[in-house]
From TrEMBL:
Pfam families in the cross-refs: Acetyltransf_1
Family in the record: Belongs to the acetyltransferase family.
Entry-linked InterPro entries: Acyl_CoA_acyltransferase (IPR016181), GNAT_dom (IPR000182), Plant_NAT (IPR052810)
Keyword annotations from UniProtKB, A to Z: Acyltransferase, Transferase
Identification of the protein by name: N-acetyltransferase domain-containing protein
Segments forming domain N-acetyltransferase: 9-184
Source superkingdom: Eukaryota
The organism of origin for this protein: Gossypium raimondii (Peruvian cotton)
Length: 408
């Protein structure tokens, strides 16, 4: 391709009636995940918009050569309203003036920027980002952000050097395999499955001031992909599944320690596959699974089948209070593991802030996890938030962050 080809790149909205096969071909040619011998590939199950379509507003753009109509790139984006900070209430009649209230802003998330390897370094990625940002601005978005790998230098350079984004947060992606055996849940812990309305009440009243908390948390909890919200309390306290009387009563008199998390079914949205593994590595993994299945009472840490397309469950809304909250999170993760095993998944994953106090309670394999997922952010406008936060891009990180499962 010559230098003039950049002028004949057309960026337009994705048309599923004619673009599906071409988009899938570009996806196959683009490696996803960290560089190296092992590579992670994503199968979107025939729906290129699957990872943004559950958001309040979304768009997918493609880049094509005007001469041949060949699709050589794509980008996805979605828009929602989230917490960017907090303020104290001034209305003493209806609110506790000492209790902070969330400050919301309209944000956009960029996901799945792909450019065909044979057409890179032509400015296609930049064109796709700028066109997507135009749509963001037209819809009143104040900030745009994205997640990328720290070692994906090409992506980092594109967004920070050419598009004006700044490095913002570095949460940890924690991934744990699903074994052939069930994990025991401590008999010192009681688990309670909350209704979506109780879960919404708990999240809004305890976690709504956390960064990136979605204002439409009710839509998330009521989505068909949300498999439930689970509360863990010390066994012997007055709260059990049988005696549960609602979130209002619980929050009026909570136990000293408690924890909560919700489970999102990514398996019905996309599948992952690890490629590039040696025959020896595959044989070793298979051997651990066989032994684990034959001798489940040994509870061996078997390696799941990740060298074929596999599904996962994502744990979101991880939170809690009290000195034993991390131990209660550990029990919730064991329960989530067993749900994933029943659902035919190979891994469970979550993403938390690096400084999250409950991080210690989330079991994970270091070799499967990412210590610092890089989030970059850019301010697009100043007309939405109430000014209490100022420029969010310059704010220091908090201890916690709410990772929306619709964007994982």
């Amino acid at each position: 391709m010559g230098g003039d080809d950049e002028c004949v790149i057309v960026v337009r909205e994705f048309d599923p009636s004619k673009d599906l096969a071409s988009v899938e071909e570009v996806e196959k040619r683009c490696e996803v995940g960290p560089s190296g011998k092992l590579s992670l590939f994503t199968d979107l199950l025939g729906d290129p918009i699957c990872r943004v379509r559950h958001s309040p507003a979304f768009l997918m753009l493609v880049a094509e050569l005007s001469s041949t109509k060949e699709i050589v790139g794509m980008i996805r984006g979605c828009i929602k309203t989230v917490t960017c900070g907090k303020k104290l209430s001034r209305n003493t009649k209806t609110n506790d003036p000492s209790k902070p209230l969330p400050v919301y802003t309209k944000v956009a998330y960029i996901l799945g920027l792909r450019v065909s390897p044979s057409h890179r370094r032509m400015g296609i990625g930049l064109k796709l980002v700028l066109r997507m940002e135009e749509w963001f601005v037209q819809n009143g978005t104040e900030y745009s952000y994205l997640a990328t790998e720290n070692d994906n230098q090409a992506s980092v350079n594109l967004f920070t050097d050419k598009c004006g984004y700044s490095k913002f947060r570095t949460p940890s992606i924690l991934v744990n395999p699903v074994f052939a055996h069930r994990l025991p849940v401590s008999n010192r812990v009681s688990l309670i499955k909350l209704s979506p309305s109780d879960a919404e009440s708990l999240y809004r009243r305890r976690f709504s001031t956390i960064e990136f908390f979605p204002r439409d948390i009710d839509s998330v909890l009521n989505n068909r992909l949300s498999l439930g919200t689970f509360l863990a309390v010390p066994r012997g306290c007055c709260y059990t599944q049988e005696t549960w009387a609602g979130c209002d009563k619980f929050l009026s008199d909570p136990p000293e320690s408690w924890a909560v998390l919700s489970v999102w079914n990514c398996k019905d949205v996309f599948r992952l596959e690890v490629r590039g593994a040696s025959r020896m590595r595959k044989t070793l993994a298979k051997t651990t699974r066989i032994v684990d299945k034959l001798l489940p009472f040994l509870r061996l840490p078997s390696i799941p089948e990740v060298f074929k397309p596999f599904g996962l469950h994502f744990l979101y809304g991880v939170g809690g209070e009290g000195p034993s909250a991390a131990k209660l999170v550990y029990a919730l993760c064991a329960h989530a593991h067993n749900l994933a095993k029943e659902g035919g998944c190979s891994v469970v994953a979550t993403e938390v802030a690096n400084g999250e106090p409950l991080k210690a309670g989330v079991p994970h394999w270091k070799r499967l996890s990412c210590d610092a997922d890089l989030w970059c952010i850019k301010r697009l406008g100043e007309d939405y938030s109430d000014g209490s936060v100022g420029d969010w891009t310059k704010s220091p990180p908090g201890l916690s962050i709410f990772v929306d499962p619709r964007e994982f």
